[in-house]
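Hey, I'm writing a tutorial for new members on how sequence and structure tokens pair up, and I'd like a real worked example in the thread rather than a made-up one. If someone can provide the structure for the chain below, I'll link this post from the tutorial.
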Amino acid sequence: MEPKEFYGVEIGTTRGALLGIVNLKDIVHYQSREQFDADINKHHAEGYFDEHEFRNGKAYGFVLEVVERFEKPIPWKGRQRWFDVPQNAIELRVKIS
């Protein structure tokens, strides 16, 4: 999959940084390609899943709210999956930048 622009950040190129803050509001379990395609403007993940993942119940989408992109990425050692970042760490790094 080629990198693409999403909220002003070229996806697939930025590593080791926080890009913004979101709240996870809901998780959508896509059970068909049609259901997934109907939400294409919400998830911007065209071509992400193949039919095998729909058949095996492994196609999920995240509904995010309070999306705030930082003016500049904040260097941060990430992890796979979701993880919390202490609020004071974000505030401190934004003031230093």
